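Teaching assistant's notes for section 4

Start the section by putting this record on the projector. Ask students to predict, before seeing the second block, whether LuxR C-terminal-related transcriptional regulator will look compact or extended. Collect guesses on the board.
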Amino acid sequence: MISDPSAKIHELWDELADLPLAETRLSIELLFSRISEWVGADDAFWIGIARVQSEPHAANDVLHGWRLRTAERWITRPEYNAEFIRKVLAHMERDPGMGVRKVISEAGRFRSYRQRDGFIDFKAFRQTPQYEMYFKKGGITDRIWCVSPVNRDAESLFCFDRIRRRSHFTLEHERLVAQVLRGIKWFHRQLLLNHGLLVGKTPLSPTHRRLLPQLLSSKSEKEIADALGLSRATTHKYVTDIFRSFNVSSRAGLMTLWMGGT
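Reveal the predicted structure now:
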């Protein structure tokens, strides 16, 4: 643990705020690595969650009308490509474990948990297929969950894992994670926007996500096309698609959205 957490947290918030809007991956890697260093986590990931059904239609839904739409991992491996992540999220939606069910059931408020703090029956969880598939095979010995609502239909979920360790996260570790993440609602908002959520319930395609950060820079469409190896016509089509997805008509409108405007 760090000796003066408030000072370090404020420094981290300033670093995140100073990064260009286009540097989404750099921003989330900074957040992953700094928090992981402070709490002794070996891996981390983020999931963007969107509400697709409201009451009464969500009453009998396995995830109460919510869906796990997109994800980012800290430690990237070749097998953790976009298709792999999509399949994992789809499987978790069809057959969510006890932890996922509990986290989603309490949507609408900022919340944090430790996997072994009693928020689920961990002994019962160890008998489930989800424990075998995701925890035992992956060597996960403990997890901190932290979820920040951004609006009534979108939430930002962070998880920090210990891998093959005897020691578990403490209450102080959980509180530190919560303190960091609760103070940057603007960051959760931009993270969801960068994945095509918040204003819509369907995430952007990988191609559109590659182009989106370029639109938040000062590059012209020609420069963006050259940077991505696309024709100008194809680039313009993708730009138009992105504007339509975010219900804006220009890059100025897109920038306003990112800066918290309407």
